From TrEMBL:
It is an enzyme of class 4 (lyase). This is UDP-glucuronate decarboxylase. Its EC number is 4.1.1.35. It is a single-pass type II membrane protein. Signal peptide: none annotated. Residues 5-302 form the NAD(P)-binding domain. GO terms for cellular component: cytoplasm. The keyword Zinc does not apply. Keywords: Decarboxylase, Glycoprotein, Golgi apparatus, Lyase, Membrane, NAD, Signal-anchor, Transmembrane, Transmembrane helix. GO terms for molecular function: NAD+ binding; UDP-glucuronate decarboxylase activity. Pathway: Nucleotide-sugar biosynthesis; UDP-alpha-D-xylose biosynthesis; UDP-alpha-D-xylose from UDP-alpha-D-glucuronate: step 1/1.
Length: 319
């Protein structure tokens, strides 16, 4: 039986990865310090004979007894409001955390994957973004703590691959959404859905002409799984190329939720990227992967999830 360590297991993507690897027959160790995650996301796995949870901060030395076949390092604050609130921890989990886990992978002879991001392209001057684009990042801007941690993470991972021959994978994840997103994580989909459910107007930042391309979580997990199982060592974009402006997206959500809220405009946060769309030619050609779930279906499933939250949970949101 393959043994797999997943960091960030109590988070949005980490918890879906735990489900997937258990379904594939792996023994899964989920590791998390719960700084932005929630045990609720994995409570259905407690009692599963092939799952164990380790409450640990990966910026501290990571010890796992026995063998390990795969390590997926997904621990990191991922939402702008999170990494603005905890900038040092964000830098540390990308830098020190990655170094610790690379050391562990080397020790165990495990295949190692990092969750990189479209943010390494910054506010991109090339559109859509191919893996060859070097990016346009403000190192000292508010998003720099996340972007540079992720860029360092890619560099150190490549260095372990080159100098130690470690078997590594780098997935550049573009905006992903779906059940188990945290309602108050500040990202646009939970923000708009929470506002719709509370009967508040939807807050579009700037004039809403900035674009994003949203990938449903099941598609993202499939792409990540295929990349891990492939023999491709260079960075690969995994995301949905269907791009939409944030204003049009707010209108879609108003239609989907059947509410009659208005759109109100708030200032655009500093360094908010103006456009983002993955070029997924490599994923199509090398993995035979492309997203299958359209935005309408994915958003409907996500809305169903948010509707299950209690009134108290909805009101606890400070957005
Ligand atoms: P999330 O905040 O839901 O999950 C991250 C998890 O990491 C949380 O459970 C948190 O408690 C844990 N964590 C943070 N620091 C830790 C530490 N020092 N030690 C142990 N655990 C720690 O975020 P997510 O959306 O699931 O993102 C997961 C990964 O994917 C992140 O690395 C993120 O950068 C990357 N990513 C996500 C997206 C997206 O759209 N969701 C896009 C690009 C990249
Ligand atoms: N956004 C918005 N209203 C909100 C939250 C976000 O208009 O209440 C915008 C934000 O400025 C950005 C886009 O939605 O242009 C996506 O933001 P998110 O935080 O989800 O992700 P990221 O900027 O990291 O892609």
């Amino acid at each position: 039986m393959k043994k797999t360590l997943i960091t960030g297991a109590a988070g949005f993507l980490g918890s879906h990865l735990c489900d997937r690897f258990l379904a594939e027959g792996h023994y899964v160790i989920g590791m998390d310090n719960l700084i932005t995650g929630d045990l609720k996301n994995i409570e259905h796995l407690f009692g599963h004979k092939n799952f164990e949870f380790a409450h640990h901060d990966v910026t501290k030395f990571v010890h796992v007894p026995g063998s390990l076949d795969y390590i997926l390092h997904f621990a990191s604050p991922a939402s702008p409001i999170d990494y603005l609130k905890i900038p040092i921890q964000t830098l540390k989990v990308g830098a020190l955390g990655t170094h610790n886990l690379l050391g562990l992978a080397k020790d165990k002879g495990a295949r190692f994957m990092i969750a990189s991001t479209s943010e390494i392209y910054g506010d991109p001057l090339v559109h859509p973004q191919t893996e060859e684009y070097y990016g346009n990042v403000n190192t000292i801007g508010p998003r720099g703590v996340y972007d540079e941690a992720k860029r360092f993470q890619e560099s150190i991972t490549m260095a372990y691959h080159t100098f130690h021959g470690l078997d590594t994978r780098i997935v550049r994840i573009f905006n992903t959404y779906g059940p188990r997103m945290r309602l108050n994580d500040g990202r646009v989909i939970p923000a708009f859905m929470g506002q719709a459910l509370r009967g508040e107007d939807l807050t579009v930042f700037g004039d809403g002409s900035q674009t994003r391309s949203f990938c449903f979580v099941d598609d993202e997990i499939e792409g990540i799984y295929r990349l891990l199982m492939s023999d491709y060592n260079l960075p690969m974009n995994i995301g949905n190329p269907h791009e939409i402006t944030i204003k049009d997206f707010a209108e879609e959500i108003i239609k989907l939720t059947g509410t009659d809220q208005k759109i109100i405009y708030k200032p655009l946060p500093k360094d908010d990227p103006m456009q983002r769309q993955p070029d997924i030619t490599k994923a199509r050609e090398i993995l035979g992967w492309e997203p299958k779930v359209g935005r309408e279906e994915g958003m409907r499933k996500t809305f169903e999830f948010f509707k299950t939250l209690t009134k108290e949970e909805l009101e606890r949101t400070e957005h």
